[in-house]
Amino acid sequence: MRRDIFQAIADPTRRAIIVLIAIQGMTPNALAEHFDTSRQAISKHLRILTECELIKSEHKGREIYYLLEIDKMKEIDKWLEQFRKIWETRFSQLDDLLLTMKNIKK
Amino acid sequence: MKSNLLFDFTVNKSTNTVFVNREFAANQSSVWDAFTKQEILDKWWAPKPWISRTKYMNFKEGGRRFYAMVGPEGEEHWSIQDFTAITPKTNFKFLDAFTDKDEKINPEMPGSEWNLEFNETEETTTVNITIKHKTLADLENIINMGFKEGFTMTLDYLATLLAK
User: Does any domain span residue B1?
Assistant: First the structure.
């Protein structure tokens, strides 16, 4: 099953993980220290985040570090941008209309 | 001329509110009419290639606008706007909801509260629109919750990266 970025950020723990690894890559153990939940629960969240392609893992010696795929985050930005675009289009149509109305009155 | 007109679009994730501020090169009466008369509204409300088609609009407190956004393939998305407060030329408020073609409200789609303020300044009129979501759309909800958890930090970080 393919997951998307919005599933990734739907959970508060996952959002907190994203914030933590946005600063620097972290190992699952280091991440788990920041939460009250079990190491297993953190691994599950990391698996979901990986399936969403929002994070990737990198081996460094015996440790696995999780890193944020920053490009993927742009999808959220794009989503918001759609709303902005709708209003922009709508208003430029209104600009033209107001200009027409003004000219008719003259 | 157009490019000099103010346009702000912001989202307050902690209150699920969208703010849209826009300046228009026209007097307050014309801009008010454009937002409150169905024949004018239908000419610009839908971003092309969609068109807005108002079935009826009873612009008074307690009145309703029932309209469809019609797509290029003829698909129709019906909505209602129930006017709750009107102060001519300066302010009006409505509750918005999605319906089917028989005006039956769809309980699964989020409704929202709109407030529109009109201000005239010399040559232009500024419209401030506030859209507050009552029942949250999934993602709005998500973004909102994320805000509380410090998700903004990540977005700020992202913004810095994107700016590079």
Answer: no
In this complex, do B45 and A73 lie within 8 Å of one another by their Cβ atoms? no
Comparing A10 with B156, the larger pLDDT belongs to A10
How far is it, in rounded angstroms, from Cα B107 to Cα B95?
A: 14
Contacts of B18 in chain A (CB under 8 A): 83
State the ipTM, two decimals.
0.73
Alpha carbon of A82: minimum distance to chain B alpha carbons (Å): 11
B151 in reach of chain A (CB within 8 A): yes
CB atoms under 10 Å from CB of A38, counted, come to 10
Of A9, A80, A89, the CB nearest to B47: A89
pLDDT at B83: 98
B80 inside domain: yes
Q: Is residue B113 part of a domain?
A: yes
Give me the pLDDT at residue B2, please: 45
**pLDDT number for residue A66:** 94
Here the CATH number for the domain that contains residue B151 is 3.30.530.20
* Surface-to-core class of residue A42, CB atoms within 10 Å of its CB (0-12 exposed, 13-18 middle, 19+ buried): buried
Quote helix, strand, coil % in chain A, to nearest 5.
65, 10, 20
Domain tally for chain B?
A: 1
Task: Identify the pLDDT of residue A87.
Answer: 82
